[in-house]
């Protein structure tokens, strides 16, 4: 019996799912960030870890492992020169197919059919698939891109909080909640910024959404601006021939109520998730 392993390696976390030919789940795994920016060695280690978690849960022996067909969707794999380096990594499987995390999300959302997705997570990217042709919209990386994403929300919140601290704008409950974490001291925020990754900025996104729901002036301006970017993404995706579009990612559901009705009406529900897409890629 052939076994299939799907890996979703994203900028915030990584997941795996092992199934048999009938789609029965035999094992799964979870790990930390697994995008190309963490370095090849760290990426390889994380991919092996989440893979072996699923293998261990399934109780497979070495021979069974060597017959697994694997599909991996990896954040950042389309960066210049990355894919050949990743393809050279060693895995104990019969074969491994590689693509981006956005592509497996698309495959899963439409179960291999044509359509588009807009991912709103730590970052943001649109991906359109029509037959054998596919192309992305945005997703060039934080901070130059990723409009409407969790990281973008967090960055705007930090900027507003700093302006409030030095008097360029009026403090609000949101800005005070953020600066309180750093004892309202600008040097502490700057020290945090020096080592902050996109996921660290995105960690503020739920806070921004919460305060926007409560009418905070700064939070409202941030979320409304993000919603405009999301709407433009959706309009562009539809105008470029996508038969259907699915909104996905960690802040997708929280962003939907901020979209105009006519824009939200063009969205459809996903048929599956990114790990379903990775398994389609595998098999």
Please characterize this protein's 3D structure.
- With 283 residues, the chain is α/β, with parallel strands linked by helices.
- 45% of the residues lie in helices and 18% in strands.
- The chain has a 5-stranded mixed beta sheet with strand order 3-2-1-4-5, sandwiched between helices. Strands 8-7-6-9 form a 4-stranded mixed beta sheet, with helices on both faces.
- A hairpin with a 5-residue loop joins strand 2 (14-19) and strand 3.
- Helix 9 (205-213) packs across helix 10.
Strand segment tally:
9
Task: Note the gap between the termini.
Answer: 13 Å
The proportion of residues in beta strands is 15-25%
> Structural class given helices, strands, pairing?
alpha/beta
Q: Let me know the average pLDDT.
A: 94
């Amino acid at each position: 019996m052939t076994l299939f392993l799907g890996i979703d390696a994203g900028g915030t976390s990584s997941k795996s799912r092992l199934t048999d030919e009938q789609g029965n789940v035999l094992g799964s795994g979870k790990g930390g960030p697994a995008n190309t920016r963490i370095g090849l060695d760290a990426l390889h280690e994380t991919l092996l870890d989440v893979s072996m978690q699923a293998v261990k849960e399934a109780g497979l022996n070495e021979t069974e492992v060597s017959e697994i067909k694997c599909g991996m969707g990896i954040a950042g794999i389309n960066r210049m020169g990355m894919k050949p380096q990743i393809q050279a990594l060693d895995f104990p499987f019969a074969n491994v197919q590689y693509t981006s995390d956005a592509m497996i999300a698309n495959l899963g959302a439409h179960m291999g059919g044509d359509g588009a997705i807009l991912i709103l997570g730590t970052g943001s990217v649109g991906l359109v698939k029509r037959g054998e042709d596919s192309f992305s919209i945005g997703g060039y990386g934080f901070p130059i891109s990723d409009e409407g994403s969790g990281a973008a929300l967090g960055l705007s919140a930090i900027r507003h909080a700093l302006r409030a601290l030095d008097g360029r704008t009026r403090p609000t409950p949101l800005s005070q909640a953020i600066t309180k974490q750093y004892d309202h001291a600008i040097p502490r925020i700057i020290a945090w910024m020096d080592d902050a990754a996109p996921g660290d900025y995105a960690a503020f996104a739920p806070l921004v959404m919460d305060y926007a729901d409560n009418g905070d002036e700064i939070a409202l301006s941030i979320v409304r601006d993000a919603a405009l970017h999301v709407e433009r993404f959706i309009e562009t995706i539809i105008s470029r021939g996508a038969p259907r579009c699915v909104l996905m990612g960690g802040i997708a559901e929280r962003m939907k109520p901020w979209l105009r009705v006519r824009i939200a009406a063009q969205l459809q529900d996903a048929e599956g998730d990114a790990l379903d897409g990775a398994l389609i890629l595998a098999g």
